[in-house]
Amino acid sequence: MIKSELVQRIAERNTHLYQRDIENIVGSILDEVVKALARGDRVELRGFGAFSTKERAARVGRNPRTGDSVKVDQKFVPVFKTGKELRMRLNGKA
């Protein structure tokens, strides 16, 4: 599902809301999650899961085409850990 499909499904279930308002709400929520992760904060949505960042150390990689060594800088990557309720629902236990 992409963002526009999410907005469309929410709009179908909430006919009293304007689609542009739903787009603004969904966009604001996602922007706040991104800003929190950029600050190094953890974002937890109870029953759904938690977003955090993980540091990847600098390393020497290989160019798969040429086999040359390539320096890969340190970076932070987003990590998502599912919540207990989500895992239970996915496995048909709820």
From TrEMBL:
InterPro entries: Hist_DNA-bd, Histone-like_DNA-bd_CS, IHF-like_DNA-bd_dom_sf, IHF_beta. SMART domains: BHL. Coiled coil: none annotated. Pfam families: Bac_DNA_binding (PF00216). One of its GO terms (biological process) is regulation of translation. Keywords: DNA recombination, DNA-binding, Transcription, Transcription regulation, Translation regulation. Heterodimer of an alpha and a beta chain. This protein is one of the two subunits of integration host factor, a specific DNA-binding protein that functions in genetic recombination as well as in transcriptional and translational control. This is Integration host factor subunit beta. The gene is ihfB.
